[in-house]
Amino acid sequence: MRAPAILPAVILLLVGAACRNEQPSEGPGEVARGPAKPAGIAARLEGTEITDAQVDVAYQRLMAERNTASPADAAQVASDRRSLAEGLAIEAALYAKAQKLATLPAQAEIDAQVSKVRASFPSSEDFMNYLAKRNMSEVEFADSITRNLAVEKLIQQEVHAKQPPSEQEIQQFFEKNKAGFYRQDTWRVSEIVIPIAGGEEATLAQVRKLQDRIEDGEDFGKLAGAISTGASKTRGGDKGYLRRGGPQFLGDEQIFALQAGQCTPPIKYQDGYRIFKCTERLEPKQLGLDDPKVREECIKQIGQSRVNDYILSVKLEAKVQVF
Description:
Elements: H1 9-19, E1 32-33, E2 41-45, E3 48-51, H2 52-66, H3 74-100, H4 107-119, H5 124-133, H6 138-160, H7 167-176, E4 182-183, E5 186-195, H8 200-215, H9 220-227, E6 238-243, H10 252-255, E7 267-269, E8 272-282, E9 285-286, H11 292-317, E10 321-322
Parallel strand pairs: 1-10
Antiparallel strand pairs: 2-3, 2-10, 4-9, 5-6, 5-8, 7-8
C-alpha cells in the first residue's frame, strides 16, 4: 500500500526539483534572498516567519516520505532544507490567500478526508505507526489535511474554474511540444513466470508443458492467472507497454522482435523461467490533436502551467524571502 504524502504538493515539487538540480518547469521561480540569515529563521513572508525548527520537522517528514535516512552529502541536505523552507513559505502564503478569499473547507470535508486516509491503512495501528514515524499527532494530521484542502479549493476557484484553454492555446502548446507526442516503437507485453521448484529437470518439464498449451492456442491471460507466480498474474500477466531505450532486462531484444500475438521461447532467469507474449504492437507514429489522449495531455499541461503562474503571483505578492 502506498501511504499518502503528508507534505503539501508544492513542497514536494520544489524538493524534487532541487534533487535534480533544476527549477520546476515554468514553476514558482526564483526566491528573493534575504540579507544575513536571522537567528533561527529559515524564511520570511508578509506576516509570517518560517523557523529553523519548522524546517527540522518538515525535513524529518520528508525523509519518512522517501523512506530513507538523511543523505550523507551535506550539500544535498542544505539544498533539501532550503527547498523545504521555500515550500513552507509558499504554502503559508497560499493558505493565507485561501483564508482571505474564503476557500477554507467545511468541517465535514475535513472529517471525510481524514476518514478516507485512515481507511486506506490496514488497521488503526498501522495508521498510528505512520504518524509516529513522521512525529505527527492526530491534531497535526487533521491540520495538514485542512491546509491541503484549503489550497486545493483556492487553486480550483482561482485557476481551474476560470476560462478553459482556447483551441488556439491548445494548438500552440501542441506545436511547441510536438516532439514529446511522437510515439516510439511500442510493445504491450504479458508474461508467465515459472519458478524453479523440484529441481531443474522438473521445472523444465513444467515449462515445456506450458509451452505446448500456449502453442495449442490456450488463452495466455488465463494461463498466466492460473499458473504464473509473478505479480502481474492478477492482471492476466499484463506488464503494460515497453519501449526501446528504457531500462534493459534479460529477454528484451527477444520481446522487441515480436509481432502482436507472438510469444518468446522460455527465457531462463536466476529464479526460474519466463515466457513473454506481445499482445499489441504499436508502430512509430507522430500523434496529433485528433488523438483524445494527446488533447487531454495538452489541456492538463496548460492547466498546470496556469497553476504554476498563480503560485508565482501569490509568492511575489507575499514577498517571500529564503535565508
